[in-house]
Amino acid sequence: MPGRPSRARGGRAGHNASVNADSQRVVPSDAGSVPARLAVPAGILTAVVGAFAYVGAVDPNQPGHYPACPLLRYAGVYCPGCGGLRSAHAFVHGDFAGALTDNALAVAAYAVFAVVWTVWVVRSLRGRPLRIELGPVHLWSLGALLLVFTVVRNLPFGGWLHP
Predict the structure, then answer these.
(1) 29 partner at 20 to 30 Å CA-CA among 9, 64, 97, 103?
(2) CB 41: neighbour CB atoms within 10 A?
(3) Which tens digit of pLDDT belongs to each residue from 120-156?
(4) Rg of the chain's alpha carbons, rounded to an integer?
């Protein structure tokens, strides 16, 4: 019958014999050793720390180290990423006000990364996978945020968002 749980076949019929569709997704808590579960989050953190260390050592404020933004160079328009390297450089050197001035959206992204990475590590330690399910509403909202940020930083009253 469609609405009733099915009986398990070929075993003891008891309280565990009913199988519910929702209960079939079981992740064992001992799925691999702790170092194996933390390998991917540790690798991602290593890559991010390495990138921040490089940007902290090679100053983006000095010309010639990084390519210029093509949108800014050819159209004279600040994209959402303009000032991101300067923001990361200031962030690495502890100048948080300067980082916010260079690219406030990038600083917000640093905070989101830190939170998601921490949740990922905690879930990995507990033997559970990280599941981030972004629906259409989330993706459209993110796109709208990027669009509004880009438009406002290019308007005369959005000068405080210029890198």
Answers:
(1) 9
(2) 18
(3) 999 988 888 888 888 999 999 999 999 999 899 888 8
(4) 24
Sequence-distant (≥ 6) Cβ neighbours of residue 1 within 8 angstroms: none
Q: Residue 56: is its pLDDT beyond 90?
A: yes
> Dihedrals φ, ψ of 152, to 5°?
-65, -40
> What is the token pair recorded at 67?
């390519």
Residues sharing a CB contact under 8 Å with residue 152, sequence separation 6 or more, in sequence order: 158, 161
Pick the closest to residue 48 from 82, 92, 79 (CA basis).
92
- Answer left, alpha or beta for residue 45, where phi above 0 means left and psi between -120 and 50 means alpha: alpha
Beta-carbon count within 10 A of 116 CB: 12
Tell me the whole-structure pTM to 2 decimals.
0.71
What does the angle CA 61 – CA 117 – CA 49 come to, to the nearest 5 degrees? 35
